Amino acid sequence: MKAVGLYKYLPITREESLVDVEVEKGHPTGHDLLIRVQAVSVNPVDTKVRAPKDREEEKPKILGFDASGVVEEVGEECSLFKKGDKVYYAGSIGRQGTNSQYHLVDERIVGRKPENLSFAEAAAMPLTTLTAWEGLFQRLHVQEGESILIINGGGGVGSIAIQLAKQAGLTVIATSSRIETSEWCKGLGADFIINHYESMEEQLKEHGMESVDNIFCLHSTDKHWEEMGKVIRPQGKICSIVENEEPIDLKLLQDKSVSFFWEFMFTRPLYETDDMVEQHHILNKVGEELEKGNLQHTLQETISPINAENMRKAHGKVEEGKMIGKIVVEGWGQ
């Protein structure tokens, strides 16, 4: 079957960074589904996994996490899906990725594709939706009436986090550094926008806020750490999805008794936790809200078909760091 993979970890400007390959189609056993992939999305994690490293792969490494498609076969222990079901999911960082015509995935992390979304629109949603939901409701445990500062509101995770937080009854402050991104965030429901390249403390004060109850950091934990410590309220909560490059000084949070959490969407599938099926439930819950029109998809750009050249284009756009919403690559051509 067709796939896009790599043997060498190279800058995306190099043709060999992602190449067209032929690999064997798997057969599902246990809880696995075999999915006929229709569309895939590119996330920052794709570019981080692909980033230059001093090693080579003997067999092609297939990247890709977000996907939508149709169930082709089911393993003997499957009970949630059957052949022909349309699905969407974010996969596991511990397995081969979705950038292939057929893909094996554990059904416990797969959701039913929302009926009102195209395959491309659905493929834009899973990874960012799971990250936002877990961060907001299972790490921060946000409550109606609280405030939340979402740093980098216009990215993939921020775009769904704004909507989920607003739907949950929070006052949502999103950060943005460009006019078009600010308008996007406002359109998703953010109450007001501040610039994360300027003093967030001073900008919050201009809006009559001395502190916030929650912070969801989706951009440079290192850069924003000190200011997050300043604007979080006593006994508030901070959650970040961005790994730190420098040691984090947790003493900055001590006097305020602030709680800090990491959110890594791949934890459940990577460790096959007892509550792994929670991701199936989250995707189905959000899918229902998308079908009702209470949430909107975050797809902003589509490229076709799925091949190495177009995947390199998509990776390049994500690496620029200027994406609003999500980018999807769909279809396999002839």
Automatic annotation (TrEMBL):
This is Zinc-type alcohol dehydrogenase-like protein. Homotetramer. One of its GO terms (cellular component) is cytoplasm. It is found in: Cytoplasm. InterPro entries: ADH-like_C, ADH-like_N, ADH_Zn_typ-1, ER, GroES-like_sf, NAD(P)-bd_dom_sf, Quin_OxRdtase/zeta-crystal_CS, Zinc-ADH_QOR/CCCR. The keyword RNA-binding applies. Belongs to the zinc-containing alcohol dehydrogenase family. Quinone oxidoreductase subfamily. Keywords: Acetylation, Cytoplasm, Metal-binding, NADP, Oxidoreductase, RNA-binding, Zinc. GO terms for molecular function: oxidoreductase activity; RNA binding; zinc ion binding. SMART domains: PKS_ER. It comes from the Bacteria.
